[in-house]
Amino acid sequence: MMHDTARFLPAILFVALASVADAKEPVDARVEPLLARMTRAEKIGQLQLINIDGKELEPYLAPVRTGGVGAVLNSPGPEESRQLQHIAKTESRLGIPLLFGRDVIHGYRTIFPIPLALAASWDPQVMESAARISAIEARSEGVNWTFAPMLDVTRDPRWGRVAESPGEDPHLGSVFARAMVRGFQGDRLDSPTSMAACVKHFAGYGASEGGRDYNTTWIPEQQLQEVYLPPYQAGIGAGAATVMTAFNNLNGIPCPTSTLLFRDLLREQWKFDGFVVSDWNSLSQLITEGLAADGPAAAKLSTRAGVNMEMVTEIYQDHLAALLDAGTIGTDVLDGLVREILSVKFRMGLFEPLPGKPYIYPPLLAAEHLEAAKKAAIASTVLLKNENTTLPLADSVKTIAVLGPLADSGADQIGTWSMDGLGADAVTPLAALRDFAKSKGLKVLHAPGLAISRTRSREGFAEALAAARAADVTLLFVGEEAILSGEAHSRANLDLPGAQPELIREITALGKPVVLIVMAGRPLVFGDLLDRTAAVLYAWHPGTMAGPALTDILLGAAEPTGRLPITFPKAVGQIPIYYAHRNTGRPFNSATYVAMDKIPVGAPQSSLGNESHYLDLGHDPAFPFGFGLGYTTFDLTALKIDDAEIKAGATTKVRATLQNTGARRGTAVIQLYIRDRVADITRPLKELKDWKRVALDPGKSQELSFELTPAQLSYPDATGARHLEPGMFDIFIGTSSATTESVPLTVTGSTISVNFTAPAALPSKRVPNNK
Ligand code: NOJ
Prior knowledge:
Blueprint: H1 2-6, H2 27-37, H3 40-46, E1 48-51, H4 58-65, E2 71-73, H5 78-90, E3 99-102, H6 115-120, H7 124-140, E4 145-146, H8 170-185, E5 198-202, H9 221-237, E6 242-245, E7 249-250, E8 253-254, H10 259-269, E9 275-277, H11 285-288, H12 295-305, E10 310-311, H13 315-325, H14 331-347, H15 367-380, E11 382-386, E12 399-403, H16 410-413, H17 429-440, E13 443-447, H18 461-470, E14 473-479, H19 500-508, E15 514-519, E16 535-538, H20 546-555, E17 634-641, E18 645-647, E19 652-660, E20 666-676, E21 687-696, E22 701-708, H21 710-713, E23 715-716, E24 722-724, E25 727-734, E26 742-748, E27 752-754
Parallel strand pairs: 1-2, 1-10, 2-3, 3-4, 5-6, 6-9, 12-13, 12-14, 14-15, 15-16, 18-26
Antiparallel strand pairs: 7-8, 11-16, 17-19, 19-22, 20-21, 20-25, 23-24, 24-27, 25-26
Helix pairs in contact: 2-14, 3-13, 7-8, 7-15, 8-9, 12-13, 15-20, 17-20
């Protein structure tokens, strides 16, 4: 593995040997003279992101030497990157440095929980620290550009990339966006520990039809503004240096050619001053998608949209020169694309000479990195059920059966997109529990029951059942292997794969307490299985330190403080199901609802109630957005608002008292939602606007106050203009999106426009895309 050798190399920066201008000069003053000296071929070279396939560098040396490459994806290792950078900076005519891009998505060598799990922490510090440590480790091996954060809001757990997403909510996604960009880029883009971030995939990829990856998306513009755009904009607002185009076709226009997205919105309205990279092969795919007839057309359409750099394919390399000769594309367009790339390279400090003293990086998997990964895994684990205070395990528990296909699978617990993480580095729950048991006189019995999550063979059942019989408590680790989520890994069924349901049934039938620990890249569907268990921990794919984190949670050294960043459906047929839905004219009514098996034979059609529900499933999800238990209980009382009536544009405060009514210290995640009862464009039943994480000792109380601002009370129309309409609002506070605790607020006056940084407006003046 490249890391084994790399770890013994001195950790030094890749920096310029020759600076083209004084570092103190403004970036523009450095870009323009350089641009003026570039040949057309060198300019087109800057637009190329090459993928290095394999270990062999030879085929790539000449293009780098002649200035034919702007950036490198998947460099085989730090030494190879150093060599390529040296050639680019000292042997190419103008010494323009390379970017080294890589998918550092939730950790480099120290793997943090998958992004969906980081979002479940509802803790921006946890998210930021994961990204910060990822950047430090990746930079130590020469990676200076990450293809993250992925900010595709999604409401479809079938989609494999839900694992990489921040979940279903625009506000939670925006907080995640800011934290991740801050973490990757640090305080300064030119710091030796910063990586350029890449906000992706712009835009709306998470709405892929049917949850099938790469699929078409149809998103009405108002919904785009309300749901999908805010996290991207938050990432841009936090200073992300680059943006990646999405694979999807958005309302008939494949994203990489959308002038509306990239020129009008990103550049003009959001003032994005970094550069845009296409996704893998996505320019050549324009032909497959039926937008471009051939390569030249694909090049024309994507340059017009403002896609600066092409990932992997060579549509620009092959066709731009001819298009420039023919005058189809102007030199000014080419210069514009190159200028934005050079500008990022200057801002990253890549042109600067080597520092006198090389920066010394902490080693990969440094103790503090592992500690942060453990903390993140604890923070993102969601306790879904805890009957009879089964967790944390009582002192009376002397023998534990550790069962299930995911109890000891390092490679699976690190999840999808762990390119540089190793299963061998991961501390599995079995290893950590055994370690803990040694010092505490606990007995651990282990039998996987199933070799992997998809196995249908019952061969291992007998041994697993014997272990469960002999134990006081069974810890059953089930879920999905890492390979079952992520890019192109969508599923039509969300149940536990293989014979896992049978294993759960047979173990729980023994009548002893069973704790289910689920490791998965998405919400799964459990049917009645959870009812059979005493406690359920949803751990997602928690990363390198899953074992120590879960051991602390199970044995009570730590409390699970995760809350769901996405609604858990009861069945696939409910999808899409999300908390921020609109009311129908005939909302679900539990009083009139008749479940399918209760419908009298021969009942007349009108006797059943004409409301919005499923005959076989009712209306509610399995678990609502924002839900998660802890190891103590809280009471939220005295909900009040400072002003029951405010004038449009004014601010007020909502208050409540939180008390820890349980026996141990714990953390509550108190969430603020609003509902605008009547509006020109109907509003969701609830919208998350804020939350607070509050830790309290037993018996202690704290008064919480949330400020309600005009921006929070406003909503975007289809052009993105935000309106605050007078009328009645409900302000909800609670421990999940299912809360019913609210106070009314009346807003008086007339409708006002509200300036809001996220999301900004889509232009009302449309630029025809394809002509
Ligand atoms: C394709 C994926 O869609 C994107 O997210 C990733 O960054 C690139 N491949 C590079 O690996």
